[in-house]
Amino acid sequence: MDDQVNRLVDKIWNKLQLTPPNTRLLIAISGIPGSGKTELALTMSNRINQHHLRLHPQLPQIATHVPMDGYHLTRRQLSAMPDPNYAHSRRGAAFTFDGYKFLTLVQALREPITMDTQSLFAPSFDHAVKDPVDDDIAIPASCRVVFFEGNYLSLDQEPWRDAAALMDELWFVEVEFEVARKRLVRRHLRAGIAGDEGEAERRVQENDLVNGREIVEGRLGVQEVVVSRYDPAWDA
């Protein structure tokens, strides 16, 4: 993974130097649940900021990452669906996200940066209350590189397709389903999503990996495929 990341850091840094100063560089990192896309997005934004701060220590950071978790529909919205039990049980599927709200953010980030440009805000997800928190992630005008990460960012369906078309690059984190399954069972237990290993296993098999197959089978063409192999550091 380190060699892949080093190459990608160099690629994005060099690409940034060729990007007009009034334009942001937008990279969407997708993959099935448990693939490691969050870790990759965090690593990339941190490494780009390190490059920048070595050269310009007095300037603000220029890279950030935006997770798609904040675009989950709320529990109230799921309860208002025609089959609320099914909607809640399938939370995490593409239809349980507000893709059009995400597209609106991407469109705003595509606008040229000017002296009057204000910070934009993305929602986060509060795992304690199990719902999004609006306007919780600031994207200041000084931020030139945005790494998005989420399951459906390269899905060939509306509105994800429209958002993908606005990205400079689409990346996909590839992982074996069995590796993802083990990671997800542990994650659900630690987060309290499941009460025991059996419940966690059922959720992974009946929801997460079902979504994973849709993500893989419906994927758009991407510029980079990053292979995630088993690594205890990525189990979180």
The CATH topology name reads Rossmann fold
What count of helical segments does DSSP give? 8
| Low-confidence blocks of residues | none
Lateral strand order in the biggest sheet: 2-5-1-6-7
CATH architecture classification? 3-Layer(aba) Sandwich
InterPro entries: P-loop_NTPase
Protein name: P-loop containing nucleoside triphosphate hydrolase protein
Keywords: Hydrolase
GO molecular function: hydrolase activity
Describe this protein's structure:
The protein has 236 residues and is an alpha/beta fold. It has a single domain (2-230), classed as P-loop containing nucleotide triphosphate hydrolases (Rossmann fold, 3-Layer(aba) Sandwich). Helix content is 42%, strand content 18%. The strands form 2 sheets. It has a 5-stranded parallel beta sheet with strand order 2-5-1-6-7. A two-stranded antiparallel sheet has the order 3-4. It is globular and about 50 Å long. It starts with a helix and ends in a 9-residue tail after the last strand. The model has no long low-confidence stretch (mean pLDDT 93). InterPro entries: P-loop_NTPase.
